[in-house]
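A quick word before the example. In earlier lectures we treated sequence and structure as two separate objects. From today on, think of them as two lines of the same record. Here is H+/Cl-antiporter ClcA written that way.
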Amino acid sequence: MKLKRKKQLVTTLNILDKPIRFNPFVFSRTFFLWALLGIVGGLIASTYWIILEFLTHKIAFFDGWQVIPAMTISGLLAGLIIYWIGDPGEIHLIVNNIRFNKGKLDPKNNPSMVLSSLLCVASGGSLGPEAPLVQVTGSTGTWLGKLCRLKGEELRSLSIAGMASGFTALFGAPLGGSLFSLEILHHKHAVEYYKAIIPALVASSFSYVVFAVIIELGLGATWSLTAYEYEGVFDFAYAVLFALAGTFMGWVFIYCTKFFKTVFEKFTIPIYIKTTVGGIILGVIAYYLPLTRYFGHHEINELIGQSLPLTTLFAILVFKIIAIAVTVTSGWRGGFIIPLFFVGTTLGLIIHHFFPSTNLTLTIVSCMAGINACVTRTPMSTTILLATLTGFSYFIPILFASLTGYFLAPRIPFIQSQLKEQKA
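And the structure line, produced from the sequence above:
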C-alpha cells in the first residue's frame, strides 16, 4: 500500500516538473466551429421564418368557407412533395438518428421537410415550425462536422448543437433550447450527451443573436400574460393542481393521436391522399372555429385577449386537440410544442372560469407546463421556455408543474424512439 502511494507521489511530481503550456482562455478552436454553426443556424431559421410569414399572409387571403378548399389543396400539394421527393420523417426519426445513427442527421431529407412543412404550417395546420427547423439545422451540424472530419461524440455533439440553434431561434431561449436538444433524446439517457451542452449553448447564443437582429422575434415575452406576483406557498400547490389538469389533457392528446393513427393506417393509400383528407378535416374545423387554425404562436394572444364564453372555450379545447392529432397522423409536417401550449392556455382559461380567485397567469402557465412535459418529457427545458415566452420571472412554480407532468406521463412515451435502448 505504501509502495503504491509512493509511486503515485512520484508520478505527480514528474507531471509538475514538466513545462506548462500557458493558455489564457478556456475555449479552443472548436469554439469557432460552434459559433459558425450558430450563425448558419440563425440565418437558416431567419430565411425559413421570412418565407413562412410571406406564404401565411398569401394563403390567409382565403377565409370563411374558402379555408376548406385552401387547406385541402395545401394538403394535397404537401403530400405530393413528400411522395415525389421522399419522406423526411418526423421528430421520432430525428431522435432515433441522434441516438442510434452515430448522431448523424441526413441533409438529403431537408428539401422535402422544408417545402412540405412550409405549406402545412402556412396554410393553417396545427403543427409549428420547430420540428422542421430542428431537422434542417441539426443536419447542417452533421454536414459541418463531416466537413471538418469529426467522428464519434464530437460529430454527435455538433448535430445536437445544430438542433439547439434552430430551436432557440424560434423560442428566443438559448438555455432552454440547449436543454431541450438534450432532454428530447431520452428522459433516462440525456446525461450520456452532457458533452454537447457547451456546444449547444454556444451555437444557440449565436443563433439567437442572428435571428433577433433579422427578425426581432423572441425579444421579451411572446405572449401577453399579466405579471405574476408570488402570493404564498399555496401557489406551489395550485401549480401542481393545475398541472394535473394539463397532464390529463396530455393523456387525452396522446390517446386521441393513437386513435387517428390507427384510423389512417387501416387504409393502404398514398401519402398525398392522407394529407388531402387531413386538409379537409382541418379546413372544416378551422371554418367553424377559426382560432384552431395555425399552430398558435399568434393565436394564444388572441385567445387571452378575448372574453370567450365557456362553451366556446370547451369547443376550442376539444377540436384543437383533434386538429393537432389529425395534423400529426395524416402526414402533415411540423412540431407540436407551441400547439400544446395553445391547448394549455385554453384549459387554463376554462379553469379560471370555475375558480376566478386564482391567479390567471399561474393557472395558464401551469397547464402549459403540465401538458408539454407529459407529452415531450422535457421538464427542465419546458420550465425555462415558458419563463421566457410568458415573462414569468418566478419560475419555480413552473418547475413544480413541469415535474408533475413529467412524472405522471404515460409509461410508453409519445415519442416512441425515446423508449428504445441503446444498441450495442
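Notice the following. The CA atoms of residues 268 and 274 lie 10 Å apart. We will return to this example when we discuss secondary structure assignment.
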